[in-house]
Design brief:
The chain is an alpha/beta fold. The chain is about 45% helix and about 15% strand. The structure holds the ligand Nc1c(C(=O)O)ncn1[C@@H]1O[C@H](COP(=O)(O)O)[C@@H](O)[C@H]1O. It is an enzyme of class 5 (isomerase).
Amino acid sequence: MSKVAIVMGSQSDWPTMQNAALMLKQLGVEYDAQVVSAHRTPELLTEFAVTAADKGIEVIIAGAGGAAHLPGMIAAHTHLPVFGVPVKSRTLNGLDSLLSIVQMPKGVAVGTLAIGDAGAANAGLMAAQIIALHDEAVRSAVQDFRRSQTQKVLSNQKLELPE
Ligand SMILES: Nc1c(C(=O)O)ncn1[C@@H]1O[C@H](COP(=O)(O)O)[C@@H](O)[C@H]1O
């Protein structure tokens, strides 16, 4: 059963949001992904957010660009932790997405990640770290991932000047 839900405002967000899915897959966490838009499919948003906990979802990752109200509106409907990923927009490079996700009013929380691919990957990592609190297999996968990342950095010490 999926413990993490990944939602995004448009299919055009998938090249960014697939980085969250790839991270979860790498760490052995089952996820569902779907397009849900606060503005274009408001009834679907409410239905998704209100029923997510009863379906066994433990963490929600929501990505959107521009007037990115999706993560905040989902958080308004559920007690589950919600991570917001600002998708890079064509006109303002994602600054609009970032500001509209990060500036939540006190009392309704969204954990906001960095703009774009790295933010989406880290949202997947955060979700896995939450699942790892009670799932030993995911905990070892997260620890292995971190150890191998450290090894890669330490073994890549080539700092030569170009000819
Ligand atoms: N910000 C939102 C919401 C929302 O917040 O509900 N729904 C779609 N969008 C965003 O509009 C951008 C352009 O979407 P299209 O490419 O479909 O025109 C996407 O980045 C999407 O997340």
